[in-house]
Amino acid sequence: METAAVARTIDHTLLNPTAVDAEVAQLCAEANRLGVAAVCISPSRLPLPRGALLDGIQLATVCGFPSGSHRPESKAAEAVRSAELGASEIDMVLDLGRVKAADWDAVEEDISAVRVALPGPVVLKVIIESAALSDDEIVASCQAAERAGANFVKTSTGFHPSGGASLGTVRLMAATVGGRLGVKASGGIRTRKAAEEMIAAGATRLGTSSAAIILGSAEG
Prior knowledge:
This protein is an alpha/beta fold.
């Protein structure tokens, strides 16, 4: 797979809570050089600091991160404020407790609260924390995200002890949404080989802090 094509799937990510403005600026400069799809930073780092510029690259942030255990109205307010500060893509964490309780109406309402509050052009990705879920829960979570108007489903925050993305999960998510939504694989993608395998499994975006390594070597 050509390097430029891989690059266009990547959300170049910096969600370390200790990140400072200089690191955000460096992330943006690296993103421009690599030609990635987006950068993803914490909402408290918005708006982009002086000197951090993006050239045709989307600006993403997270919402209800990393636990998802926030009131829907709080998630909606956080997402709207991030959009006001320049974010064009929002990666929200769904409420895992509601998933585990099989309260699918509440799961859908949680996602819908964010989708309805956001301006239409803003892309909404729903993080389902797939490694913590059964296959049935993964399928039902993806279905709830689609019903609620999400644009993507995403495997993981990268912060949960259960782990990140797996090829089997990406295949299951891709089969569930059937191309109607994008699928973002995130968590543990650190090599070119891993990135290409995730894309082959059905991922249309990759969340990683290792973009420079992935794009710097075809062997990874």
